[in-house]
Structures are given as structure tokens and as C-alpha cells.
């Protein structure tokens, strides 16, 4: 029987065989460029269509050590504010999780802490697990692991077979951390085009505006958020319940803005 060909995982760089990476669970082949959506070769570091860095290179901005995007996101979102406060203390993360990506993804789930079979997860389950792993790492002060799992989470997002406002919102928060501006704004625009008035669209715009210190854009985001706030909460969207603390924090930022400052 011929020996199966080996390839390098486009997410974490581990060498192996099979359709999925045994280290992080990312698909070895058939991945799509997060920039233009074109198919990528298994070992690609850059997209042949648009030139965007992919795989291990996709997290370069996150690995640069610049925590500004987390700081800006934290000012608008309660969850990320908590992340920032913990990160400032630089608490240590789990050594086992940092050494074993599969175990890190499984941390907080699975019998006796054993890694689940990631290859059997649905695309959405894989994305949610990696997104949560990034947030857990950040909340524990493990900035290195947060940056390490960032490209894996973004890669998993490109593998989703369907997208909703919640998935796009999560992806936008991840992209803000990498230093991306166009990506989160495009996601906000898509959310609002499909669901006019959706609060996530204005929260993403406001987060990016704070980061860029764009007072006019921040004022628009604040005003649009408040304009649709009451009606949107009455709509009873499931994703609002999951992110009620983030929504409350963003609203508090609007109401506490000083007279003459953005959003007032």
C-alpha cells in the first residue's frame, strides 16, 4: 500500500497526513483565502489570487505584540474590556494548552479534559471552539496563546458553510485583534445589509472607529446604535441574549460620553 502523502497544515504549520490536521484540527486541503475566497493549495503561505498572507502567516500582526486592537475593542465591549484588564496583569496561561493546540482547543470541554475528535465537528462547532479558545486565552492573560490560535480561528471561519450575524460578529472581533480594518467594516456592512438596524453592525463600526481615533465615524456609530436600540431589543434576537453584557457596555459608553464628544 503506498504511503499517504504528507503536507503542512495551513493553520498551525504541523506536518502530517490526512484531510485534517492532527494537531489543530484545521482542514489540510480545500481551504479558502480569507481575503478573496479563492481555493488555497495545502502548503500555501500566500494566496495566489490576491497575495494575502494565509495559514501561519495570517497571524503575523497578532504575533507582533501590538495589543492596541484589544484595548480599543475593550473600550466598546464588556467582554473584551475584561480581557484587557486581565491581560494588563499578564497572568500565566495553561502550560499544557500552550504546548498542545489540540488540548488547548479542548480545554474547558470534553471528558476529563481529553481533546475531542475535532475532525468530526461541524464547521460551526470548530469555529466556535477556536473562537472561545482565543477569548479564554486572552481572559487568562495568555496573550501568546491568543495570538497562536488566532489564525486557526480565522481559518475555521472561512470553512463555515453558512454565516449569520453572530458568526460575523465573532470574526470581526478576531480581525480587529490582527490589525485588520477593512475586514471588520465589511462584516459590519454585510450584517446591516442583511438585517438593517442590527446592533452588532454599529458595535463593530464603533470599535474600529475608536481604534482609528475617527471621532466622526464613532459619533455615527453611537447615533445609529441608539436610534435602533429599543426596536432591536424588542425583536428578541437570540444573539443579543448571548452578548447582552457587550451590548450594555457599548450603550454605557454612549451615555457616558461627555458633552461635545463623539456620540453626544
Secondary-structure blueprint:
Layout: E1 7-8, E2 15-16, H1 60-63, H2 68-76, H3 78-89, H4 95-99, H5 101-106, H6 123-139, H7 143-158, H8 165-178, H9 182-194, H10 199-212, H11 215-235, H12 238-242, H13 244-255
Antiparallel strand pairs: 1-2
DSSP helix fraction: 55-70%
* Shape label: elongated
Class per helix and strand makeup: mainly alpha
First-last Cα distance: 71 Å
Poorly predicted sequence stretches spanning 5 or more consecutive residues: 56-115
Query: Biggest sheet: strands side by side, in what order?
Result: 1-2
Give the C-alpha Rg. Answer: 19 Å
* Strand tally: 2
Q: Count the DSSP helices.
A: 13
| Beta strand % | under 5%
Key descriptive features of the protein:
264 residues, mainly alpha, two-stranded antiparallel sheet, 13 helices, 56% helix
Amino acid at each position: 500500500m503506498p504511503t499517504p502523502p504528507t503536507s503542512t497544515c495551513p493553520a498551525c504549520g504541523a506536518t502530517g497526513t490526512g484531510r485534517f490536521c492532527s494537531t489543530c484540527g484545521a482542514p489540510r486541503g480545500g481551504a479558502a483565502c480569507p481575503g478573496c475566497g479563492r481555493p488555497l493549495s495545502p502548503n500555501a503561505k500566500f494566496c495566489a489570487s490576491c497575495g494575502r498572507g494565509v495559514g501561519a502567516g495570517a497571524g503575523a500582526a497578532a504575533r507582533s505584540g501590538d495589543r492596541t486592537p484589544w484595548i480599543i475593542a475593550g473600550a466598546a465591549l464588556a467582554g473584551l474590556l475584561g480581557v484587557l484588564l486581565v491581560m494588563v496583569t499578564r497572568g500565566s496561561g495553561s502550560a499544557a494548552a500552550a504546548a498542545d493546540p489540540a488540548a488547548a482547543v479542548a480545554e474547558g470541554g470534553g471528558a476529563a479534559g481529553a481533546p475531542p475528535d475535532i475532525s468530526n465537528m461541524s464547521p460551526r462547532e470548530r469555529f466556535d471552539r477556536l473562537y472561545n479558545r482565543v477569548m479564554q486565552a486572552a481572559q487568562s492573560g495568555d496573550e501568546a496563546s491568543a495570538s497562536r490560535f488566532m489564525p486557526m480561528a480565522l481559518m475555521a471561519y472561512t470553512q463555515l458553510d453558512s454565516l449569520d450575524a453572530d458568526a460575523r460578529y465573532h470574526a470581526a472581533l478576531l480581525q480587529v485583534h490582527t490589525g485588520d480594518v477593512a475586514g471588520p467594516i465589511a462584516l459590519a456592512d454585510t450584517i446591516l445589509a442583511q438585517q438593517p438596524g442590527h446592533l452588532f453592525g454599529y458595535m463593530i463600526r464603533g470599535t474600529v472607529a475608536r481604534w482609528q481615533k475617527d471621532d466622526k465615524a464613532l459619533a455615527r456609530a453611537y447615533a445609529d446604535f441608539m436610534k435602533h436600540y429599543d426596536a432591536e431589543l424588542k425583536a428578541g434576537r437570540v444573539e443579543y441574549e448571548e452578548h447582552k453584557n457587550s451590548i450594555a457596555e457599548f450603550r454605557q459608553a454612549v451615555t457616558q460620553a461627555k458633552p461635545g464628544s463623539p456620540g453626544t
